[in-house]
Structure formats: structure tokens, C-alpha cells
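Exercise: predict the fold of this chain.
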Amino acid sequence: MPNKPSAIDFPSKIGVFWNSEPWPILDAQSMAREIESLGYGSLFMPEGNGKDAMIESAAFLGATERLVIGTGIANIHVRLPTAAESGARMLTALYPGRFVLGLGVSHAPFVEGSLGGAYRKPLTMMRTYLDAMNSVPAELERGSRPTRLLAALGPKMIELAGEFADGAHPYLVLPEQTRNTRAILGDDPWIVTEQAIAIGGSAEDQLRRARSHLDLYSRLDNYRNSWLRQGFDETDLAIGESERLPRALVGMGSAEEAAASVTAHLDAGADHVVVQVAVDTPTDDPLPNLRALAAALGL
């Protein structure tokens, strides 16, 4: 592995991306322990309109022994940049090598609707936020600079992730986009790529879950534009009608076939891949799929 700009000690190259917000925190902590026991190296969680991803991260770090915990992503519209930086430094000081601060600009409908904020130029917003994070005095938890990853889909945000952060956290991308991200970033910055899977049940059931997983994202400009850049067209983005997009982005079939979709990102230049189980509802248990995948990956 190349020399990285900051130290993260992943116990394995495959982790988990899981929306823990709908789960009671004590149950979520039990899930984190189970994920660790299966041999996965990380647990990344999103931040929507519910729980604070920084507090969730502290809960998961305290409940596990080696599992790396990451925000995927901490929404920059939710907290002040100085609060994000100081909180991340404290988690890094408490759990060296085990916390990753993933940051993202979110999406206009969420920011302007649910949060009542203003969604301006994403690149400018992120650059300004990172500059403000850097203004936190070095004396605060000296020596505990957190690892920062940016939710980066377009080339300019990927460049920013290499210049002003420690790498990128691609989401819902093809292995070729992971390869493109590596080409832009060069050897050193981190790439932690998300890969969705839908295994178990019939082929029709897997396709249904994959389509359901992509439905929300297909209505967000950031993802639509990302998929168009990756070679899809508008007919592919009609999730309920096309099979091309879900079959390309979601690892389906047997556990072994899904495992191949995960390792394809490692082959394309990712340092770490986080697996997200496509489920019917946010409270569905992802563990059956995660157990089968762990066995197929030899974790």
C-alpha cells in the first residue's frame, strides 16, 4: 500500500456501509460488534435528517475493539466546520487510527427543504468549509489530526479531495470510476469506495431490491450527473424500467458474484471498499447478506 498522508489501521480491506439511523443505538452497537466479528474492517454510516454521525461514531468506536469507523458522509450543512474538526480530533485522540471523517456537500433538496439552508456552488462550499476547519488551533488535541475524505464524484471535487483532504469516498460508482479517481489523485491519497450488493432470494427479488436502493439517488442531480459521466444515458436512469444501471452498480447473483464486484474496486485502485446491503426497508437486517459475503470473501 502506498504511503498515506494519514494513518488509518484497517483490519481488512473490506468494510461495511450501513444506515444505522433508524436503529436504536444499543441495537446498532450490537450490529457493529457483529460486523467486526465477521472480519470486516470498517463501518461507515451516512448522515441524513436523523442522528448525529459524530456521536454515532463515538458510540461505535466505544463498542468495538479494532473496527475503523467512518462518516459516509458527515453533512457540512449540519455543523460548524470548527465543531467538525474539533470533534474529529477528539475521536482521533481517543481511538488512534480508527476514525475517518468523511465529508460531503449533501444535496439541494435536503439542504433547502429539510434543513432550510442554502445550497450554493458545491466546490466553493466545500473549499470554504475545509479552510475553516484548518483555522482550528493546532494546540487543540495536538498530534491528532483526523483523516478527511470527501464525497467526490466529479473531477473537480476529486481534485479538491487530493489537494485539501486525504482522499475520496466514491459512492455508487463503477470500478472504472474508481480507476479514474485513482488516476486523478495519484498513488498516495486514500480511496474508500462504496459498493452495493443484493444477494439471496430469487433473481427477480435481487433486481427489485437493487432498483429500490437506487430509486432515491436517481432523483438527485449529483448522482444523475455522475452516472451520465460514467457512460449511462437517460433511459438507464429510469430505474423502474431499465436493468442496465442496477445490474452495473449493484453486485447481484451469488455471494461469490457479489464478492467479485467488491474486489473489482480494489483491483481498480481502491484502498478499501465498504459494502452496502440493498434492503427493502431501513430496518431490515443486513446480517444474512453480510455473513454470506464474508464467507465468499474469506474474511
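Check your answer against the key: The chain has twelve helices and ten strands.
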